[in-house]
Amino acid sequence: MPPPAAADDGRAAPHDAHRVIETRGLTKTYRGARPAVDGLDLAVPRGSVFGFLGPNGSGKTTTIRMLMGLIEPTAGTARVLGRPMPGAVREVLPRVGALIEGPALYGFLSGRDNLRRFDAADPAADPRTRTARVGRALERVGLAAAAGKKARTYSLGMKQRLGLAAALLQPRELLVLDEPTNGLDPQGMREIRALVRELAADGTTVFLSSHLLDEIEQVCTHAAVMARGRLVTQGPVAGLTAAVLGPGGGQIRLTVTTPDPADAVRVLKEHGLRGLRADGDRVGGELPAAVPDGPPPPDPAELNAALVRAGVRVRAFGTERPSLEDVFVRLTGEGFDVAG
Amino acid sequence: MSRVESQAPPAGTAPPAARRRPSWSADLLRSELGTTFRRWRTLVLLAVLAAVPVLVGVAVRIQAGRSGGGDGRGPAFLTAVAGNGLFLVFTALAVTLPVFLPMAVGVIAGDAVAGEAHTGTLRYLLVAPAGRGRLLLAKFGTVVAFCLAGTLVVALSALATGALLFPLGDVTLLSGTSISLGEGLLRALAIAGVVALSLLGVEALGLFVSTLTDSGVAAMATTVGLVLTAQILDGIPQLQAIQPYLFPHYWLSFADLLRDPVYWDGIQRDLGLQALYAAVFGSAAWARFTTRDVTA
Fold first, then answer.
1. Which B-chain residues 89-128 have CB contacts (< 8 A) with chain A?
2. How many residue pairs bridge chain A and chain B with CB atoms within 8 Å of each other?
3. With B63 labelled, which of A5, A14, A103, B103 sits at a CA distance of 20 to 30 A?
4. What pLDDT sits at residue A172?
5. Nearest Cβ partner of B28 from A70, A121, A173?
6. Spacing of C-alpha A194 from chain mean position
7. At what angle do helices B132-165 and B265-291 cross, to 10 degrees?
8. What is the percent of chain B with per-residue pLDDT over 70, rounded to a whole number?
9. Nearest-CA neighbor of A174 among A300, A293, A64, A270?
10. Could you tell me if A193 and A117 are in contact, meaning their C-beta atoms sit under 8 angstroms apart?
11. pLDDT (tens digit per residue) in B69-82
């Protein structure tokens, strides 16, 4: 499936119609503690799949709660679908589907009755089409067969799916999904990712918080990184690594497997590679970044040819770009599941 | 997973459904009622309330068979039950009003908001968006409906038990005059209504407590505790000065409906006091719930 059309890079004028979510200096302080969210300027372009990244405790869920009008900001403003929150909750939220901090269900009601209950709470939902919409939502998340069972008998993955179904009861302009693949098995994760891509392809903007970096890399067009309540960076995923790790898309790493590591190191050094290290029969090093006005960076194909010309026997040869994980660690300066 | 249409409407326009249907629709109230009355807890409370008149009736029957009459102690109207089963309705209401009914109402009201906050379903109702005022109103309506149901369950269970165990006939009022069984039934219905209304204060109080915490159990315990405290304070003679302001103070005035002519004074004071409590704690619940951060 082709990636959904990305709107723009998220740096245009305020109150732009292309912004589905926009915050200015959004801050939340709980009684005397350091701010849970501190001066957040977030811009989510319409049509994007926006990844919201950060270690546990970095303020992601607090931000989502403010966006959904559940808690009042201490300072700053938040606009969702162009309207101020929490002021315009009634107009905005029927057009938004949300999964916040995991699913919450009535255990003594069936899956279907849980959805009926949440649908009845939406004053914009038409009760005449309720049965049909509930049925479609259940089918869409693959729960149709278990719809009649009491929700307390559901596994965590099934509960997660039911929570997603609740967000899909109506066609939505924006989906806010907080850790949507939590508790799902790999097959379930794939299904949910496919569903997210499908929804995005239909034009729904998806705001997805996750601590799974590969998830963000796989489905998101844009991303923002939070650390200790502050926004560290945001923008298109493709540009994120470049923006953080330096010009030229960051350092490209070259790895050569050879029975002649010493010769390989010598040849590669001559071609300007840095940080060369031999580890058994594996030699690794960083390609120099492109510098304006400087010599062009060596072409990996040329390097391979040079190695062979110098009599180095090459078993394997490859390059890799820095991953989002590298970006993440660079930005937050901490390991991944550390509370901020 | 099947594919269904999901066309986002153009920017800046609300979907037509949002305009078509008024937001005060009774949908949410219906859903609240359905959810509350499908809970085991609710059904157990109603079953306990139904059992009280049966117990009282059977006890009176055994006592009557043994000695041919009571010794004048016990709850109001107890001595008249053996002669006329209809009096079991009055007795049962007099027995359940001070303790069982307010406790049951306290459980339902205390759990109303706090219980949903505890399980997290509150945040999904609010982002639906149920609307905080609308949700609180639906919760209050449901608590009132439960109270009405509880009172009716007591009255009907008492009537059935009374009719089974004792003779039914003309009712001799407290003033000494007699009325027909039909009119007696009407008065019983009126008394059930007054009893249900007498619990409005507890309902509003419980709902307010429920907005203060994220623990359903804590809210239930606090509400029931407040009911018991008010009852105890109402029984201490030295506290006469504050007693007219305690919500249980005029509760038993419903017996004045059994006079001829009906003596309205106490009932009016009772209902006035309940209205005051409902207004004060209803506003407090509103103020608290519409501004609080929902973090659970």
1. 119-121, 123-128
2. 155
3. B103
4. 93
5. A121
6. 14
7. 140
8. 88
9. A64
10. no
11. 445 556 667 778 88
pLDDT digits (tens, 9 = 90+) for A270-316: 888 877 888 888 888 887 766 666 667 778 888 888 889 988 899 88
Residues with Cβ within 8 Å of A87's Cβ and at least 6 positions away in sequence, in order, are none
Amino acid at A28: K
Burial tier of B288 (Cβ tally within 10 Å: 0-12, 13-18, 19+): middle
A residues 302-331 near B, CB within 8 Å? none
Alpha-carbon distance A32 to A42, whole Å?
24
Strand partners, A254: A285, A319
pLDDT for residue A12 is more than 70: no
Residue B185: both structure tokens together: 């039934």
Burial class of B39 by CB neighbour count within 10 A (0 to 12, 13 to 18, 19+): middle
Q: Which of B124, B125, B135, B288 to mutate to test the interface with A (most CBs of A within 10 A)?
A: B124
Q: Quick check: B216 pLDDT over 50?
A: yes
Give the DSSP letter of residue B178. E
Q: Residues of A numbered 43-102 whose beta carbons fall under 8 angstroms of chain B's beta carbons: which are they? A: 46, 65, 68-72, 81-82, 89-91, 93-96, 98, 100-102
Distance of CA A29 to the CA centre of its chain: 25
pLDDT tens digit sequence for A43-74:
999 999 999 988 878 889 999 999 999 999 99
Angle at A271 between CA A269 and CA A273, to 5 degrees: 55
pLDDT of A246 higher than 60: no
Average pLDDT value for residue range B151-166: 94
- A18 has pLDDT over 80: yes
Chain A neighbors of B126, CB-CB under 8 A: 68-70
The pLDDT tens digits of the residues spanning A144-195 come to: 999 999 999 998 889 999 999 999 999 999 999 998 888 788 888 888 888 8
Distance CA B56, CA B64 (A): 12
User: Which chain B residues in 24-43 lie under 8 Å from chain A, judged by CB atoms?
Assistant: 25, 27-28, 30-31, 34-35, 38-40
| Prediction pTM value | 0.82
pLDDT value of position B135: 94
Check pLDDT > 80 for residue A240: no
